[in-house]
Amino acid sequence: MPGPLRDYMKGFDYFKKTPLILMSPGEKTESFLVHTGECLFCGILVITDGTNIAKVIVYDNTAGSGTVKWECSVKGDEHYGGGMFPFPVEMDNGYYVVLTGTGASFIPFYVPVVAN
Question: Based on the structure, what is the number of domains in the chain?
Answer without folding.
Answer: 1
